[in-house]
Amino acid sequence: MAAPTVAEPTVTEAARVDASPPAARVMHGRATPYLFLLPYLLIFGVFGLLPIALGVWLSLHQWDFQLPNKPFVGLDNYADLFSADSLVYGDWWESVRATATFTVASVPLLVVLPLGMALLLNRSFPGRTFFRAIYFAPYVLGVAVIGLLWRFLLDANLGFVNHLLGLVGLPSDTPWVTATPWAWVSLVGVTVWWTCGFNAVIYLAGLQDIPAELYEAATMDGASTWDKFRNVTLPGLRPVLLFVVTTTILASANMFGQSYLITQGAPGNETRTVVSYIVERGLAQNDAGRAAAMSITLTLMLVVVSVANFRIFRYQED
């Protein structure tokens, strides 16, 4: 049985295909990448750029949801954050100090401990996959679950943590969520337990990208374990370290759920972070103008910190 034949295009059909102007084909080729990017750009514009623009607009007005008039005040909302005579000055800088305290206490732990975990989990031993899953498991829980769970576990009177401490002869009335420094210990400890696994997975992916030949060459040169870590592992992890440090700083500076659910800002407002104060000012006190100004100011602070972080890592690389 003869195989079916495919009709060749005629000269007229081929000429019709090539009849489009060269300029049109070039423009179509240039527009193709942007057509693929268009869905993302639309989503980013609506849910990213538009809220930023609206936030800047709100920060330039005295914006109270309950009042019909929202007068333009220019930069007065920003000036109030730096004027000792304003109503928000004291609370604003108290929340900044609380955020800085939490960030300084949590970031080193969330950078160093996951690295140690990743180094251990990168070795070959029985049950390695199981332990990888166990360490990452808390991160899949939402902040509401984490906050309510540890709020009960750390309760000074009925909490399971104080009960266990009492069983081993330690003080069983520690005010974990109502007094400092224990409130900070609780917030930092819970956050490290909750998010440590995520950074460990990022480190683990970076470790697996380091060529094994580098370690073999270092071993042949007589390098010790510390020498391999300092001269092979750390340089190989520099891009990963930059990512982990930057994202951890940003996440810690935007901490809200743990403080809101576990300590509720106690004692007093000592553990009330910037984001908590922005929410309270904007929603509870209907002062969206100043709340937006606080948000923009916090963003600019974090931009400065991120740029400095990038410059530090670039300097070390050079």
TrEMBL record:
Annotated ranges, domain ABC transmembrane type-1: 96-309
CDD domains: TM_PBP2 (cd06261)
Keyword field: Cell membrane, Membrane, Transmembrane, Transmembrane helix, Transport
Subcellular compartments: Cell membrane
Taxonomic superkingdom: Bacteria
Membership in a protein family: Belongs to the binding-protein-dependent transport system permease family.
Name of the molecule in the record: Glycerol-3-phosphate ABC transporter permease
